[in-house]
Amino acid sequence: MTDPRLESLLQSCPDLRLKTDAGDLEHYGRDWTRRWAPAPLAIALPGSVEEVQAVVRWANAHKVAVVPSGGRTGLSGGAVAANGELVLSLERMNKPLGFDAVDRTLVVQAGMPLEAVHNTAKEHGLIYPVDFAARGSCSIGGNIATNAGGIRVIRYGNTREWIAGLKVVAGNGELLELNKGLIKNSSGYDFRQLMIGSEGTLGIVVEATLKLTDPPPSTNVMVLALPSFEVLMQVFSAFRERLQLEAFEFFTDLAVKHVTAHGAQYPFEQIHPYYVVTEYASADEAGEAAALAAFEYCMEQGWVLDGVISTSEAQAQQLWRLREGITESVARYKPYKNDVSVRISAMPAFLAETQALISGAYPHFEVVWFGHIGDGNLHINVLKPDDTSDAEFLGQCEHVTKLLAQVLQRFDGSISAEHGIGLVKKAYLASTRSDAEVALMRGVKRVFDPNGLMNPGKVFDL
Ligand code: FAD
Ligand code: MLT
Ligand code: ZN
Fold it and tell me: Signal peptide span per the entry (predicted)?
């Protein structure tokens, strides 16, 4: 370690674990996007809040940029360190700190993996309901920093709904204790909510007080085959009217092609163009009867062609794999990902316009559609053909994203529903947030991070 800045870091924080091997710089310097070449200065792995504060104070003294890092499962380049930044990994701060049965809260360190949070909540007979396929690798700090959504938003909302308190080391090294687990608090600005979704640009989340809730009554999983895009929202309405939905997700035949090639089992005899996977409360006979009624009604209307209901927990997991395995199954094609949202009521018209745009724009590329349709959130993944260069592929996709951003603007939608802006969508932030809002974002950043060292260049440029 020859860099004098790192020598001084260790002098100010002697027990800090630092990594500088080439393999570590590569591993910790990128996220799931794989679009930027990692080039961090070093990786700091603090073991305590005090060490995080010491690192941030050192960064200010030496004007070194800091990239907060969780599980690096992010899909927007938020955790990428490609410009000599110090990566501050929370991976050693991964423990539960306390459960309160009366408050029904769980205090955790920010580096705790989401799945470990689920398991700890379960030990107390409760659930932490935010959930998605990266659960084994993503961290609760990263979930908070991106306001992660996932497959149960329709029932429980986004991460934002489940945070009762946060400890954050702000950009100047000061420790902020935000909301302290209170349910009611009308005492001025709620900085906890400001931190949620701020993608590491205002400070570092070091601890979180999570709200827990009762597990749902037993649920069943149903996969439906649909003839067309147009009927998707009608099927959604029919099911939502009759059932307590825990999830309502959609995917296409192309997604099925990739996910089954990756080991998922296909439940139907024929291939169909569109699919829905839904999970619903089925504690009693009435729940099951309502599910069958919804299914039969949709069949009668010609909106559903086939369906299968899980009869065991193992089968439910198999059916979920058709949806949850998509991201991994297409990863080798370096997919260009759009993650957009509109109000549910605007979805039918938005889907029609977007489908026309996308099918015309990418005649030679495979486009895999899926997403949290019950939340108005579409994932459009364009797969890179092996014989097309990265630059050419990116150029074409960026061109189409500009057009998509115009459509979103007209529908009052969002260019990022749940993955965050990071680097990937920085150029499009202003398409769905006003100039006044972006100017305020810059101003807020200056207050929390006066030297502009917290994840600089992410979300917007200063
Ligand atoms: P990272 O990738 O490490 O970081 C993400 C951002 O948060 C970066 O800007 C980083 O700087 C910042 N950050 C990380 N930790 C902290 C901290 N302690 N303090 C301050 N800032 C911090 N996302 C969804 O919303 N819904 C999904 O359904 C979903 N499914 C996915 C499925 C797969 C298979 C994969 C690979 C990803 C999926 N994602 C999904 C995206 C990703 O998992 C989420 O964005 C997740 O919240 C990122 O957590 P992470 O710990 O990996 O964060
Ligand atoms: C999902 O819904 O599966 C995730 O957001 C991941 C992705 O979009 O690839
Ligand atoms: Zn998603």
Answer: none
pLDDT digits (tens, 9 = 90+) for 178-234: 999 999 999 999 999 999 999 999 999 999 999 999 999 999 999 999 999 899 999
Report the nearest atom of ligand 1 relative to the CA of 327: 34
DSSP 292-322: HHHHHHHHHHTS-SEEEE--SHHHHHHHHHH
Q: Which runs of consecutive H residues, i.e. helices, occur in 63-158? A: 114-123, 140-146, 153-156
Which atom, in ligand 1's list, is nearest to the CA of 455? 11
- Ligand having the closest approach to the CA of 277: 2
pLDDT on residue 65 = 98
Report the alpha-carbon distance of residue 458 to residue 327 in Å, rounded.
Answer: 23
Please list every protein residue whose CB sits less than 6 Å from any atom of ligand 1.
31-32, 67-75, 78-79, 90, 110, 132-134, 138-139, 141-143, 145-146, 148-150, 199-200, 204-205, 327-328, 418-419, 422, 455, 458
Domains of the chain, start order: 4-92 (3.30.43.10), 96-211 (3.30.465.10), 219-327 (3.30.70.2190), 330-437 (3.30.70.2740)
Q: Residue 141 CA: which ligand 1 atom is closest? A: 18
Pocket test for ligand 1, best of 66, 146, 375 (most atoms within 8 A of CB): 146
CA 363 to centroid of ligand 1, rounded, Å: 31
Task: Give the per-residue pLDDT at 334.
Answer: 94
How is residue 284 written in tokens? 């009693």
